[in-house]
Design a protein that fits this description.
Layout: E1 10-17, E2 27-34, E3 39-43, H1 50-57, E4 67-69, E5 72-73, E6 82-86, H2 101-107, H3 114-123, H4 137-149, E7 155-159, H5 167-184, E8 187-191, E9 204-209, E10 212-213, E11 219-220, H6 231-236, H7 250-254, H8 257-278, H9 296-302, H10 307-311
């Protein structure tokens, strides 16, 4: 890896971002600082800002902010070696056209990285004779990963791209990425809601809550001992899992990623509900008795309600 070891792979401080049509900020007081070779897991509920943060890091959304990757501003002087892989790729009509995988990979330069391409083809169990329009979503996702990872990366941003993979392929892929970070010093930021089989993957976790990083620092993983844990990290642990001063470290070391994520998400939902109530926001709810209210829409759609016939 080139570059000074003192330069952070990702350096974002107090990031704020608001969509043009948004009434509130999508990201606020968001801080992320990662050393080269880190494997960071983003944890947060749907809508917490994970995808927005990843797209900003990749330079795919413009923002009036100082977002540094390997010491470069991602908007003004983006560095080489940033790879972003998101779920929207599979819906692109181009990648659903009648073209073989071999021709598709060659069209994006696969021949330049033949050895690495072949390793990924085996790892992801991709058949070069597949036709892109005739394969499943999971197979198409494996082609995307092969395409995206063929060229060696310095920073890899993954946004839920393992959701379509079977267990074996997913585990093999994560092992490959772990080797990339150890052997080449590559940095990985991975947003996912699937926590089985990744307990040993991250070197740190980041909790995004309603657009905020809580705390404003990454949390080492596995969790450090109580005595060496930063006070902000200790305060940011879910109350159900937070140890007392007198507790030993055995409880901390036994916490799984799923347990930690679930406790955070439960707290996040409560906080979101409280904030919505304080702003006078009421979520839409269906009436308790669906037959107690008749509307014009209900009359119209009853003409096309096949549910009774389907269930008989």
């Amino acid at each position: 890896m080139s570059g000074s070891p003192d330069v952070l792979a990702v350096n974002v401080c107090d990031l704020r971002y608001q969509f043009a049509s948004g009434a509130t900020e999508a990201l606020e007081n968001c801080t992320l600082q990662l050393a080269p070779g880190s494997r960071c897991l983003l944890i947060g509920a749907n809508g917490a800002g994970k995808s927005t943060l990843l797209r900003l890091l990749a330079g795919k959304r413009l923002a009036d902010a100082n977002i540094q990757v390997f010491g470069h501003d991602v908007f003004r002087s983006p560095p080489q070696g940033i790879t972003y892989l998101g779920t929207e790729w599979a819906m692109n009509p181009v990648v659903r056209s009648d073209i073989t995988v071999s021709h598709f990979l060659d069209s994006v330069g696969g021949f330049r990285h033949a050895d690495r391409r072949d390793k990924l083809l085996d790892l992801l169990d991709v058949d070069l004779s597949w036709r892109m329009h005739a394969i499943s979503d999971g197979e198409r996702r494996r082609v995307q990963l092969c395409m995206g990872l063929m060229q060696p990366f310095r920073l890899l941003l993954l946004d839920e791209v393992t959701v379509d993979l079977d267990v074996q392929v997913r585990c093999d892929l994560l092992e490959f990425l772990k080797e990339e970070s150890i052997q080449r010093g590559a940095t990985i930021v991975y947003a996912t809601h699937i926590f089985d089989g990744i307990h040993t993957f991250p070197t740190e976790v980041v909790h995004l809550r309603l657009g905020h990083t809580v705390p404003n620092r990454s949390i080492p993983w596995p969790l450090p001992s109580l005595n060496s844990m930063h006070h902000e990290v200790r305060a940011a642990l879910p109350s159900a899992l937070r140890p007392s001063e007198a507790a030993d470290d055995s409880r901390l070391h036994s916490i799984s990623l799923l347990e930690l994520a679930l406790a955070w998400l439960r707290e996040d939902r409560v906080l979101r509900t409280e904030q919505e109530q304080s702003r006078g926001i009421k979520r839409g709810r269906a009436p308790r008795d669906a037959n107690s209210e008749t509307t014009d829409a209900k009359k119209f759609f009853n003409q096309y309600d096949y549910y009774d016939n389907y269930t008989r």
